[in-house]
């Protein structure tokens, strides 16, 4: 095993036998939440991988039983719309890049993931999880929407019926449903996890590398038009939804929140337009 890089939020190592880059989210004190620092390090790592065609696979897991909470609930109330927009845009860019990397990307979701982490998993070619895993696209429960791919990309990768149920209910998705939908490729019991991983990595390492890379490119190109259209739509809807700033009412210790009533939305949109119009005038 060869250790690579000195990241603050990630641990990396290269396994030469199967030519696998192992990437571990390694901020358990954050519950491996996706702060901007982690997103920047992931972006840097994937940029490095772009020309490393000698690496067959990128295997991503976590230092905690649950892959990641996605959002950091302790800092959520302090996020400005600009900060949140930046996080969504960065994550969306990373997911899109993962789909185009020459390596086959495998994510082990462990016992589950929520919000931004569930969206991040959309960028993988193969998704594994434990039999006990619970995945949630529960952004709306925190006054947000899945703007990094949890609307358009999710609806492209799985049947839209599943996507609607998952996003609009925010309920935990069982490993059985995850497998039936195709979102998770294979589940494992804790005692055979290493066997499942070893088998998957070994199989990929024996494939013809040029053909494997070209096959991944072909699979991506077949969906590129839907993805590119969806990205634009996601950004527009995300911008409109942020008018309420509902996520800022979320306190980690509370289970009940005072979200903006739907009937107040039109007034808030008008108010935000006025503020946007006044901003440039005040600067001049």
Written account of the structure:
This protein has nine helices and ten strands. The chain is α/β, with parallel strands linked by helices and 284 residues long. The protein has a single domain (2-210), classed as 2-enoyl-CoA Hydratase, Chain A, domain 1. The longest helix has 33 residues, at 209-241. The chain is globular. The model is unreliable at 271-284 (pLDDT under 50).
Helix content: 40-55%
Order of helices and strands: EEEHEHEEHEEHHEHEHHH
- The backbone outline, from C-alpha atoms, is globular
Q: Compute the gyration radius: what is it?
A: 20 Å
The CATH superfamily name is 2-enoyl-CoA Hydratase, Chain A, domain 1
Could you tell me how far the N terminus lies from the C terminus, measured between alpha carbons in angstroms?
58 Å
Helix/strand structural class? alpha/beta
Largest sheet, if any? 7 strands, mixed
In DSSP terms (H or I, runs of 4 or more residues), the helix count works out at: 9
Low-confidence stretches: 271-284
* The number of domains: 1
Descriptive terms for the model:
globular, 44% helix, 284 residues, alpha/beta, 14% strand
Summarize the structure.
Helix content is about 45%, strand content about 15%. By secondary structure, it is an alpha/beta fold.
Topology:
Layout: E1 2-3, E2 10-15, E3 20-25, H1 36-49, E4 57-62, H2 81-98, E5 104-108, E6 112-114, H3 115-120, E7 126-130, E8 134-136, H4 152-157, H5 160-169, E9 173-174, H6 175-181, E10 186-188, H7 193-205, H8 209-241, H9 265-283
Parallel strand pairs: 3-4, 4-5, 5-7, 6-8, 7-10
Antiparallel strand pairs: 1-2, 2-3, 8-9
Helix pairs in contact: 1-2, 2-8
């Amino acid at each position: 095993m060869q250790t690579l890089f000195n990241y603050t939020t990630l641990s990396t190592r290269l396994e030469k036998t199967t030519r696998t880059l192992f990437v571990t989210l390694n901020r358990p004190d954050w519950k491996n939440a996706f702060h901007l620092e982690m997103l920047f390090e992931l972006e840097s790592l994937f940029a490095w991988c772009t020309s490393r065609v000698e690496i067959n696979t990128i295997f991503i897991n976590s230092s905690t039983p649950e892959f990641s909470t996605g959002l950091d609930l302790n800092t959520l109330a302090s996020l400005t719309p600009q900060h949140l927009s930046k996080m969504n845009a960065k994550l969306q860019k990373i997911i899109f890049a993962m789909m185009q990397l020459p390596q086959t990307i495998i994510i082990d979701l462990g016992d589950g993931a929520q919000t931004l982490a569930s969206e991040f998993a959309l960028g993988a070619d193969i998704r594994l999880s434990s039999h006990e895993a619970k995945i949630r696209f529960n952004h709306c429960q925190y006054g947000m929407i899945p703007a990094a791919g949890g609307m358009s990309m999710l609806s492209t990768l799985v049947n839209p019926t599943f996507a609607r149920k998952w996003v609009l209910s925010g309920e935990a998705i069982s490993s059985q449903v995850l497998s039936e939908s195709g979102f998770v490729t294979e589940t494992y019991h804790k005692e055979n996890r290493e066997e499942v991983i070893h088998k998957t990595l070994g199989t990929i390492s024996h494939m013809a590398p040029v053909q494997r890379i070209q096959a991944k490119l072909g699979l991506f190109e077949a969906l590129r038009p839907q993805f590119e259209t969806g990205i634009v739509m996601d950004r527009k809807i995300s911008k409109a939804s942020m008018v309420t700033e509902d996520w800022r009412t979320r306190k980690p210790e509370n289970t009940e929140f005072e979200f903006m009533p739907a009937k107040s939305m039109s007034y808030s949109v008008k108010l935000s337009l006025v503020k946007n119009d006044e901003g440039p005038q005040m600067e001049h």
